[in-house]
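Please fill in the sequence for the structure shown.

STRUCTURE ENCODING:
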């Protein structure tokens, strides 16, 4: 299928973002699984979403998005999911994507994760786990428009695995006092959720300096998951 993403880019995606589904009991430790089972609503949300975050998967779709150099443009988006199984997954996965994708592009990174907090019970207190879903407004990276090597390097600096837990608390507003009082924290990273969007080529991109400001204008107020209605999605491509 012809599109904005190159054939070589899609071969990379198909090779690295398809795989078998992991089992929940294999993914969580016994303490987490047992604790979640005690709260029926939390357990139902965790298991109902399992196919979304326990396997390597992607979806590709197009959406109408006029840009300054093409008023009738259609952008393309890839939504990638990768279970988090290593303490260097974030950095290495982002680095691999940047090495195999032509610029410019928009890159947003968030996570499926378990949060934990202290819940009072008749017997005292217990640890309660809840699944937190990713969304584009809570992306942990500030460097979103990647149009040059410098942009890519800035993004990689933000994707250090050692800082993810704190960034997730901040981006999902779990660092607010109301949550701090219950000792809420990020207990376990379940999967990376990556959204990559490309617009039609920028005129004379190769001959000019990276047009980061031009890209920001193109993507301004454009949010795939929350601001685009379903009628603008032309088709799903797998």
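FILLED IN BY: designer on duty
SEQUENCE:
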């Amino acid at each position: 299928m012809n599109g904005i993403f190159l054939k070589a880019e899609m071969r990379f995606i198909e090779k690295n973002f398809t795989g078998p589904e992991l089992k929940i009991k294999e993914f969580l430790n016994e303490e987490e699984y047992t604790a979640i089972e005690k709260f029926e609503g939390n357990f139902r949300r965790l298991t109902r979403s399992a196919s979304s975050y326990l396997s390597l998967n992607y979806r590709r779709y197009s959406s109408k998005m006029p840009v300054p150099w093409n008023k009738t443009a259609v952008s393309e988006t890839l939504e990638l999911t990768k279970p988090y199984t290593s303490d260097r997954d974030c950095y290495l996965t982002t680095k691999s994507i940047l090495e195999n994708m032509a610029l410019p592009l928009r890159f947003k990174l968030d996570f499926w994760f378990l949060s934990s907090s202290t819940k009072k019970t008749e017997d005292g207190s217990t640890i309660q786990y809840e699944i937190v879903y990713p969304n584009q407004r809570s992306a942990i990276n500030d460097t979103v428009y990647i149009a040059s090597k410098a942009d890519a390097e800035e993004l990689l600096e933000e994707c250090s695995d050692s800082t993810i837990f704190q960034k997730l608390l901040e981006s999902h507003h779990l660092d607010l006092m109301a949550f701090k009082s219950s000792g809420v924290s990020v207990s376990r990273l379940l999967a990376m959720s990556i959204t990559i969007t490309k617009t039609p080529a920028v005129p004379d991109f190769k001959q000019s300096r990276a047009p980061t400001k031009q890209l920001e204008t193109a993507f301004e107020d454009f949010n795939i998951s929350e601001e685009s209605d379903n009628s603008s999605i032309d088709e799903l491509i797998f």
